[in-house]
Amino acid sequence: MTGNEHHYQVGVFWTGNRGTGTSGYKEYGRDHSVTAEGLPVLLGSADRTFHGDRERWNPELLLVTALSQCHMLSYLHVAVNHGVVVTDYEDTATGTMVLNADGSGQFVSVTLHPQITVADPAQGELALGLHAEAARKCFIARSVNFPVHHEPGLRG
């Protein structure tokens, strides 16, 4: 591997001790906070299915979010490099996770549904095609062991 290294540091602090620690599966909260220098605290929990708080972010949502954000940022970069002016970008990303009989689980796919608007409608076909290049450049998508699909569309 070549290139510069970049390092990232976060703090994760469990706040779910209800007084008896992990004395039983339903006896402790899954609440936690995530911190990074100079950023607001992110309130996290487990998915509601796993006794978490539905009003907090969970790791599964954050993984899908990271993939969607990374693709968007890669796409905007690629668009600039190809002279495509993007004026709007929205994505509704979905992920599929499966649970195994032994209690483990894993994501099997994520699908991104980016909807873009470009300043020059004549560049619409080019703009759609740039999603493939952005997918190859997305750091997060290149780091996961499941497929990240793309179903882009044009608006406007």
What is the second-level CATH architecture of the largest domain? 2-Layer Sandwich
The helicity comes to: 10-25%
SS summary, helix count = 2
Helix/sheet category: alpha/beta
Largest sheet: 3 strands, antiparallel
Characterize the structure shown.
It is a single chain. The chain folds into two domains: 11-50, no CATH class; 59-154, K homology (KH) domain (GMP Synthetase, Chain A, domain 3, 2-Layer Sandwich), CATH 3.30.300. Helix content is 24%, strand content 25%. The chain has two helices and nine strands. The strands form three sheets. A three-stranded antiparallel sheet has the order 1-2-3, with no helix packed on it. A three-stranded mixed sheet has the order 4-7-9, covered by helices on one side. The protein has a three-stranded mixed sheet with strand order 5-6-8. α1 (59-81) crosses α2. It is elongated, with a radius of gyration of 19 Å. The mean pLDDT is 95.
Q: How are the elements arranged and paired?
A:
Layout: E1 11-14, E2 32-35, E3 42-44, H1 59-81, E4 86-90, E5 94-99, E6 105-112, E7 115-118, H2 124-137, E8 148-150, E9 153-154
Parallel strand pairs: 6-8, 7-9
Antiparallel strand pairs: 1-2, 2-3, 4-7, 5-6
Question: Could you give a short description of this structure?
Answer:
By secondary structure, the protein is of the alpha/beta class. It has helices at 59-81, 124-137; strands spanning 11-14, 32-35, 42-44, 86-90, 94-99, 105-112, 115-118, 148-150, 153-154.
